[in-house]
Amino acid sequence: MDESLLKDIIAKAKNYDLSALEVLCEHFYHRIYNYIFYKVSSQGDAEDLTSEVFIRMVKNIAGQSGSFKTWLYKIASNLVIDHYRQRSSVKKTMAQYEELLNINSQKQERDAMAAYGEFGRLLSELTPEQREVVTLRFIEGFSAAEIGKITQRSENAVKALQFRAMTTLREKTKGTQEKNVRLEILGNKGATNAG
Amino acid sequence: MPDKRVKNIEDALDESISRLKAGKTIRECLETYPEYAEELAPLLVTAEKLNSMPAEMPHNCNLAQAIEKVRETAGRIGTTRVPEGHSFAGRFFNFRAALGLATAAGFLLIASIGLVSYSYRTIPGDSFYPVKILCEKIDLDYLTAENKKSDKHIELADERLDEVQKVAHSRHSIDKNALHSMHEHTEIALNDVEGISDNEEIDCLNRIQQLHRRQIDLLKRTRADFYAQNADEINQSIQLCNDRMNWVIQANEAVSQQANAGIIE
Questions:
Q1: Are A122 and A169 in contact (CB under 8 A)?
Q2: How far is A43 from A85, CA to CA, in rounded Å?
Q3: What is the pLDDT of residues B242-255, one digit of tens each?
Q4: How far is C-alpha B232 from the chain's CA centre?
Q5: B117 lies in which domain range?
Q6: Does the interface predicted TM-score (ipTM) exceed 0.85?
Q7: Which domain holds residue A72?
Q8: Which residues on A lie below 8 Å from B21 (Cβ)?
């Protein structure tokens, strides 16, 4: 969407124009959903939290200032933090049951991410903080300074997380690449022997 | 050009990622930071891979449900739709709102006109008498031309005289405030005479003279009715009216003589 058009729509939405609010919801829904999904790794939770983001957007849009996109992602980021806080308090009481049921949440997380293609599979190799930074940088195109505002970290901390994430990804993809090369060599040898 | 602030590999990587997104090649990025080239190269290859990798969209995300929730929330806050792309229901409710406002404005206007009309028939002591005084003040200050203000004060002095008489008949007392206001308007009318032309001055002085005659006549009748209770106040008022009338007669004669002399010359 054109930037000036988006600005007009945001201005109308600030006056509680229902059509403008709906357009904003349609425009940002998938991006916010993706951002939340890469953080929570659960489709159900991501849907609920995304809806909540837009409810909060409507409630607070009149007082919004600065970059709208950064503001919206900050709402999403705060909601995910609240979601984790809530979940961790529930987990304390549910810990024993989880042990009994032997829930492997990490494996579930990886499976869920894998369903979202190679990008999702790669992201599942990162820590949640690194994953958040990479998602915002490579999918949403935010700068390190903007990511700092959204995630309430310093710009340097964001750059450090980004560096560690890229190093981890490099290590993971390096292994895959080497494996692919080896398979290629073995394939060639097989073909030669057969010939 | 390399940024002077770049101090470590983390900054270099961040800036190189921005350059890759802007369309630069890995080689160009590495040339900018030769001191980090060896370490940066594999990271930039990964970054380029991430850039080119499409992130799949979720399949079952419930946009419709989210929009419905947005509508509900907006409805609770009290939103309005813009005229473009309005539904019939939206236009109908806007029409209803406009009609409601117009009806309320109409009622307000009718009520105001009724109140003002009614207040003109009130006398001192009535609930709406202050409305009458306020309307007179607005009329005098904002709606009457400067050269007509003297006439307006004569009219108001006459109105106060009527009020004094009505109060005397209905409540068997003399309203001091109305009496005082009558003298006040008469005096202002006399003062305003000085600023107008000779012909208008003669007309105005004649009207003030007639006003004084009516005042003296009506006050004498009132004194006859309520002699025992309000003799002093009425006598003082009659005396004041007499004095003023004598002055007006003299002034009228002087102005007439001057006017006649001017015509002869």
A1: yes
A2: 18
A3: 888 888 888 878 87
A4: 45
A5: 109-143
A6: no
A7: 1-86
A8: 141
